[in-house]
Amino acid sequence: MIEIRNGIPFVAFSLFRRAGGVTAAVASRRGGVSKAPFDTLNMSFSTGDDPAAVRENRKRFLSLLHIPAESIISCHQVHGTHIEIVGRADCGRGAKEADTAIPACDGLMTQEKNVPLTMNFADCTPLLFYDPVHHAAGVAHGGWRGPAGDIGGKMVQLFHETYGTRPEDLLAGVGPAIGGCCFEVGQDVIDAFSALFGPEEMGRLAREKGGGKYLFDLPEANRLLLLRAGMTSHHIEMSGLCTYCRDDLFFSYRKSGGRTGRHMAAVMLL
Questions:
Q1: How confident is the model at residue 1 (pLDDT cuts 50, 70, 90)?
Q2: Is the pLDDT assigned to residue 142 strictly greater than 90?
């Protein structure tokens, strides 16, 4: 799951490697040039980090995947469920500065080769998708408001509507995210997911801490929504890595108190 190349650790998915035809990974926070509190492989222009450092960090990580850093497609993530279908004409949006990124978007999809899709994370769940039958790929931002709006299910449905994807053929990698061991939430989050899940599922996802607080398993909620959308369990690969526990390896917004960098999920059809 965790590989190291040129001194940079990253998360790769065996499902994608076995299928072939795609390059995909989630970066760590190590191996870059950014100074604290963005140390060191920060991938986001929106954090207050030196933009030159971000560009160098992106180049270092993306070169490991044979992705040209100047060609990536990025977006302004807003914790929503809007998904954009993109292509070669969109390459470079948000690659060198934040202003040119796709606005208000939390999901990207393409069927074109050499079109790199990226999103940034620091506790939220990276969702990476690949249809090896129709040769299509996508990435989505699974922070709690997105899953509460079933962004995973909407990605699966849009793959089907746009590319003819059968949900049972779709592969998904669920990247490092804050886990059920550490993700403390209030009643508002529990209410939002109770509208999606029944009591039995909520009993697996949420554990009461007292004082109106709960521990909630966000990666598992994303997995259950993908299964509900028709995906099969053996086509979903979970990283099992908690960003809060492993803030030595990944950025954690919660652990840092809100001032930190972002690691990147990237996927590109070959």
A1: confident
A2: yes
Q: Report strand pairing: 125-131 vs 184-185.
A: unpaired
Burial code (b: 16+ CB inside 10 Å, e: under 16) for 65-74 equals bebebebbbb
**What confidence tens digit (pLDDT) does each residue in 113-138 have?**
999 999 999 999 999 999 999 999 99
Instruction: Report the distance separating Cα 198 and Cα 76, nearest Å.
Output: 32
Residues in the chain: 270
Residue 75, pLDDT > 90, answer yes
Tell whether the torsion through CA atoms of 212, 218, 220 and 221 is positive or negative: positive
**Where does residue 6 fall: left (phi above 0), alpha (psi -120 to 50 degrees), or beta otherwise?**
left
Question: Which residue(s) pair with 2 in the sheet?
Answer: 11
Q: Which domains are delineated in the chain? A: 2-180+232-269 (3.60.140.10)
% of the chain residues with pLDDT over 70: 100
Closest CA to 31 of 39, 41, 21, 19: 41
pTM of the model: 0.97
Q: What is the chain's mean pLDDT, rounded?
A: 97
